[in-house]
Amino acid sequence: MSDPRVIFFDVGNTLLFPNRTTMLAPLPSGAHPSLEQWRGIERKTKREFDDVPQSDRVDHGFWWMFHTHLIAASEIAPGSSTDEVLKALVRNTQNSANWDQILPGTREALDRIRRHHRIAVISNADGRIAEVLTRCGIADCFETITDSGLVGHEKPHPAIFEAALRSMQARPEESVYVGDMYSVDYLGALNAGMQAVLFDVAGAHQHRDVPRVESLEQLEAWLRR
User: CA-to-CA distance for 49 and 65, rounded, in angstroms?
Assistant: First the structure.
């Protein structure tokens, strides 16, 4: 495996995390899961989702499954209103503005990484992820930002990886992609000829024998390997 020259990052659950209060507004406040419960649902959904053949609406399908599990674990009684709550939760989650939680030290870690590598973004989003990255103070870290809402293809479709590689004038074999979903990010990048690392804060992929990190600091160590 060659040393990567270009590092592409996912955004959701990699660089930025959900504003759960805003995202879960359609639920009664007493039904909001704790962070630990959220992470448990995330682990369950990711493992189930990896076994499902991917369609053209990957992001929508994942969050539909996730929030179905979340509602089932909440105190909401089943009924016709549950379908409307589910639709509202998925809409909120696919609104990139609701992904604005950034971990302390993110900017500093990105600055260290880009001393040695060119860095960029590939995100399944709604065409506005650059605005959110700007608001969170890290957009200027990246040479390019490739957003599926603008490209017209979602990961794991090879077209979005190819568009990002062209934007950086980079070859697949000298590039690595860092993202949190095995079937979408990891396999999508491998199928595009890139190297890949799973960013697994929730611990959903501990059973997989693949490159895996749980923080940007661990990614830095992996890059220095």
Answer: 8
Q: Are 198 and 210 in contact (CB under 8 A)?
A: yes
CB atoms within 10 A of CB 142: 21
* Contact indicator for 98, 92 with CB cutoff of 8 Å: yes
User: What CA–CA distance (Å, rounded) separates 188 from 193?
Assistant: 9
Instruction: Please name which of 140, 146, 101, 102 lies closest in space to residue 127, comparing C-alpha atoms.
Output: 146
**60 Cα distance to chain centroid:** 13
pLDDT in tens, 44-83: 999 999 987 765 557 789 999 999 999 998 866 565 578 8
The superfamily CATH assigns to domain 6-16+99-223 is: HAD superfamily/HAD-like (3.40.50.1000)
Domain spans of the chain, in order of start = 6-16+99-223, 20-95
Query: Among 170, 132, 127, 169, which residue's Cα sits nearest to residue 152?
Result: 127
**Helix, strand, coil share of the chain (percent; to 5):** 50, 15, 40
What are 87's two structure tokens? Answer: 């639709």
* Tens digit of each residue's pLDDT (9 = 90 or more) over 10-41: 999 999 999 999 999 999 878 899 999 999 99
Bridge partners (DSSP) listed for residue 176: 7, 195
